[in-house]
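G., the chain you wanted modeled:
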Amino acid sequence: MSPTAFRSIHTHGFVRVGAATPRATVGDPARNAEITVEIAERAHDEDVDLVVFPELNLSSYAIDDLHLQGGMHHAVDRAIATVVDASAALHPVLLVGAPVPSGSTLYNCALAIHRGRILGVVPKSFLPNYREYYEKRWFTPGAGVVGGRITVAGQTVPFGTDLLFAATDVPDFVLGMEICEDFWAATPPSTRAALAGAVVLANLSASNVTIGKARDRALLCASQSLRTLSAYVFSASGPGESTTEVAWDGQSLIHENGRLLAASARFDDSEALVVADVDLGGLVSERMRTPTFADAAVAAGRPDTTVRRIDFELGRTDGDIGLRRTIERFPFVPSDRARLDEDCYEAFNIQVDGLIRRLTATGSRTLVVGVSGGIDSTHALIVAAKAMDRLDRPRTDIIGVTMPGFATSEGTKSNAWRLMRALGITAEEIDIRPAAEQMLADLDHPYAKGERDRSVYDTTFENVQAGLRTDYLFRLANHRHGFVLGTGDLSEMALGWCTYGVGDQMSHYAVNTGVPKTLIQYLIRWAVATDQYDGATDEVLVDILDTEISPELIPAEEGEEIQSTEASIGPYELHDFFLHHIARRGRAPSTVAFLAWHAWRDAAVGEWPADFPEEARRAHDPATIRRWLEVFLRRFFGFSQFKRSAMPNGPKVSGAGALSPRGDWRAPSDGTAAPFLAELAANVPADFS
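Predicted structure as tokens:
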């Protein structure tokens, strides 16, 4: 793939959508058409693919009986023609609102217009006729109107509530429309449209404002996008509409699968166009992995078999037009402080509750934890301490064991002891070096013969230490009537960065196995910030957070840096990003690279999680992203699944996914990374900057 094609949002399944808030008039269709065209031209300049205007924006909404005037009908028809003519030179699909006569009836309609063509007209299904609303005085409900055709602005086009609009040159860009009251109904037409295949749902709304109504609209948009696994684009009338009896705030919203992507300012006299890039590929992937969605379509009578699908060629934009959406650098760590605090509260308590249940079920007298002074074992230990507190059991029922090996630093060993003492657990030390030396000698390993060059520190040398630590923990648990608490995290399981069997891959209960490395750091910070423990414990926790992540298995020569995990396998911040978008969202490697480039290419752009240290804010260039993505694919798909297939029990923590073969992720232990590496090689240029 060329760099130009790679940088296009359309290549990766995104389309750019906009919700417009024009300045209305009190019933001047000619002027309303001019304003509509002006906004459409602005959208064209911003490479927008779809623009949604408010309900009846060409006639104005609050003109009451003027809707029934023949002169108004002629003026609206001319206004539609004006917009259609102007659209011939513009890129976006325009969804405009207008009253459209059909014989002796008048419908409140949404018109889809593109490149000089009216693609189709959809009438409003549900007409409000309560409180301040009186729409049935003027309009006929569109519910049940299917299979029809109508003549508008000289074009005879499809008409009915059974219309979807599909771009032939942009996969998954399938559009459904509804109007205002429709999504307040118990059975919104957009639900059926989504079940029939629409991925983008648009709501052309007038919706006058009252206290609290903006919250209700936002709730409905978020809920409908989440329930239908869609992008939902909502545009409501704003300044200029008649305020004879009501007022308008001009609220425009763009949601995707329950998440707000963009919102307009409210009560603003200026015209607005809010824009966001929606992830069609991600939405379709989510529908594929949610069988309930397909089941609902069957239960609804397979609406895809009765809908009329109107094809059009969008004329996709190639090249880099930016990405108009926030891509979280840390998918597991929200940048919003309030949400991060809530996530940490839930994650921590999920782990504690899971461990409490396992302790209760086994009736174990003790809980055995290997304490290295690193963040994983630290977090497992503080979870264990909280579990004992909630069970009203003494913390001395936790047996913490630090097990220095050939590369254990004084700093981590000291932190392990400080933490165990601060928490008041039973603290012990087992020096594994004598047993390791004996095993290496029994294996006739070069290290046992006195050789000390770097080649001696091989997998056997490392795993002898890792295996002995686990062996001691299990036998100690047997001896003290307890069970071993695993400390390995989700990120390590994804990469297979653990020793299988008699090693850190195995335990009786793996409390961290659903928590990625990037979140564990924040869980520890949250525990400090919310005073879960005393000051002495907090002091040690802060020191441990500042420690380099290392397996401490290979000795460092004088003047050398200690063994670094991230230097060996890559930054966890990138691997957790890859994990989320591949395992949870099912995206192709090329799309993951595209998203990572936008998230990580400039440390000064975009939001970082609350209190993320300035000195740790890094950027990653294309070569770095591509290099470590290839490593991730090789490890995740190529040779680490057998470790996950035999992983111990542990609680699922993040809705973004887990890797247990009994939960979110099922894959063959003897699978291959070949197709994923091939897609990366074919579609990700070496330099796509």
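The chain has 21 helices and 20 strands.

Shout if anything looks off.
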